[in-house]
Amino acid sequence: MKKISCIISAYNEAPRIGKVLRAVSNHPLINEVIVVDDGSTDDTSKEALKFKGVRIIRHEKNMGKTRSMLDGCNSTGNDLVMFLDADLIELTSDNISQLVQPLLNGSVDMAIGMVKHDSRMYIIATITGHGAYSGQRAMKKEIALENLKKVQGYGAEAVLNQYVIDNNMKFIVVNWLNVRATFRLKEMSVRESIGSLIKTFQDIFHVVPPYKFFKQLLLMRILSTKYAKK
Fold first, then answer.
1. How far is CA 99 from CA 109, 131, 210, in A?
2. The domain spanning residue 60 has which CATH number?
3. CB within 8 Å of 147: residues ≥ 6 apart
4. CA 88 to chain centre
5. DSSP 5
6. What is the pLDDT along the chain (230 residues), one digit of tens a residue?
7. Domains held by the chain: number
8. How far apart are the first and last CA of the chain?
9. Rounded to whole angstroms, how far apart are CA atoms 218 and 95?
10. C-alpha to C-alpha distance for 74 and 148, rounded to whole angstroms
């Protein structure tokens, strides 16, 4: 049976990462769990080590999510990888199975987990691709390695989405109806929120032009509805 590694990029997620690790550690379909502590100044690594078998990669300074994803990929010998955010709420073992099973049985090249967002932030979430640009995804490691080295910052999901579309690869979108994402814009000032949005779009449009970005959003929306009951 093919083996899959779970890679969790984390920056100052000590209060939240345990909830994600409870769902994925000791999961029968997951062969390895790697937490990439991206220069955290809190107890993120300490909390992660409370879970048996979790391997830590630590950056001495914050290098960004894409670099953390790439370092996680380079550190595993398994052919399949699953990326998870460290701040997911109400993630369960069943959610993990829903995401990785299509990849393990060879029916798809990539599986994307759609999470819920705060309804009060629906417009911003839609505009920024909070669904289509979900960081929760499982794929062949070769896809991740080939594409993540091309981008920085917030460009990871953009380049991965475009790669599977351009190469006519098989992918599935699974709606995790019970899982919520921590929407960080709510935690920022207005000025910080605007700056974060600008940086996000700069990174995305550096990878794909605007028309391809909106095409991705439309395609993911259609597929998330199609596979909502999966």
1. 12, 15, 28
2. 3.90.550.10
3. 156, 159, 160, 163
4. 10
5. E
6. 789 999 999 999 999 999 999 999 999 999 999 999 999 999 999 999 999 999 999 999 999 999 999 999 999 999 999 999 999 999 999 999 999 999 999 999 999 998 876 544 444 455 554 567 788 999 999 999 999 999 877 789 989 989 988 898 888 888 888 998 776 555 656 676 677 678 777 888 888 898 888 888 787 767 655 554 44
7. 1
8. 22
9. 24
10. 11
Residues 6+ apart with CB under 8 A from 56: 34, 35, 37, 45, 48, 49
Give, in order, the Cα–Cα distances in Å from 175 to each of 71, 98, 130, 141: 28, 9, 13, 22
Residues 57 and 49: their CA atoms lie apart, in Å, by: 11
Dist. CA 141–CA 146, nearest whole Å: 9
Report the residue count for the chain: 230
Tokens at residue 123, please? 């417009």
Q: Cα(21)–Cα(8) distance, rounded to whole angstroms?
A: 9
Please give the residue range of the domain that contains residue 75. 4-226
Paired tokens of 153: 């910052």
Q: Which residues contact residue 161 at a Cβ distance below 8 angstroms, ignoring those fewer than 6 apart? A: 132, 133, 208, 216, 220
Residue matched to tokens 């979790």: 54
